[in-house]
């Protein structure tokens, strides 16, 4: 369901405004006001998202108007939270299999109006990280107006068939052009007549946390702290000794195999301590000239007591024994006389 208005009341970041402000404001972009312009060829879109299962949605872009929608994203399927969520609107109903930065010349020819064309409106260049199509650089970009600058970003892409695709990242309750809170706000071009756009939800979920070996709930329902790091025992720091907090470490993904070793970092989910734990193990074929990585260990100070040296004792005893023998011999010599 949408709420339509009879005229366009969006502000849009334009290339002209950027050029005028870049030198004086250090690249802080100024909004270009296109308020109440019924002759505009752009259609404004705003609204909220719902985590419910995604359903097909077709938007009819009416020149010079704004409509607000509630869009289902399917993010309720993300047990461990959302990693990346974008809305894609294409002027083709064909499924998108590839994306790249849009061709402004093609967009200008479609709009066919110099004051409203893509080159004038999408005067910035930014990068977008998508869930299913990778990182896309050099994307023609604009920001639509809000009380907080540079919040609602929109980019112009093209799909595998060179059809128009417009992308915007889903936010959470940000103030929009009229002060209302929106999750998205962007614009779609027309050529002066109504144009259909088809929604694709680009969603990526966070992966589940990785339990360390020996972790999980045991018979008593407690977690066993994991400190063994490649056969090197990392001692518990003093600040968690004799406390009731139980350390629960979860480890992330293994890093790349470098010089025969790979590393995995672990985090204490109980926040008992800030100790950093890393697991290191061999991987692949280890070169013979590689020295294994050094794992931080507790520095142990050993006080060595010097042993009593026997030869020093002999040096002391020999003169004493010789003197005793000499005195005895002298006494016996006197007695014989």
Question: Please, could you describe this protein's structure?
Answer:
This protein is of the alpha+beta class and about 325 residues long. The protein folds into 2 domains: about 5-205, no CATH class; about 210-300, no CATH class. The protein contains 4 helices and 21 strands. Strands 5, 7, 8, 9, 10, 11, 12 and 16 form an 8-stranded antiparallel β-sheet that branches. The protein has a 4-stranded mixed β-sheet with strand order 1-6-4-15, with no helix packed on it. A hairpin with a 5-residue loop joins β13 and β14 (about 180). The longest helix has 27 residues, at about 310-335. The radius of gyration is 37 Å and the shape is rod-shaped. The N and C termini lie far apart (about 140 Å). Mean pLDDT is about 75; it is low at about 1-35, about 215-235 and about 295-305.
Q: What string gives the helices and strands in order?
A: EEHEEEEEEHHEEEEEEEEEEEEEH
**SS elements, strand count:** 21
CA gyration radius, whole angstroms: 37 Å
Rounded to the nearest angstrom, the distance between the terminal CA atoms is: 139 Å
- Which term fits the overall shape? rod-shaped
Features:
34% strand, disordered N terminus, 4 helices, single chain, eight-stranded antiparallel β-sheet, four-stranded mixed β-sheet, 2 domains, alpha+beta, 337 residues
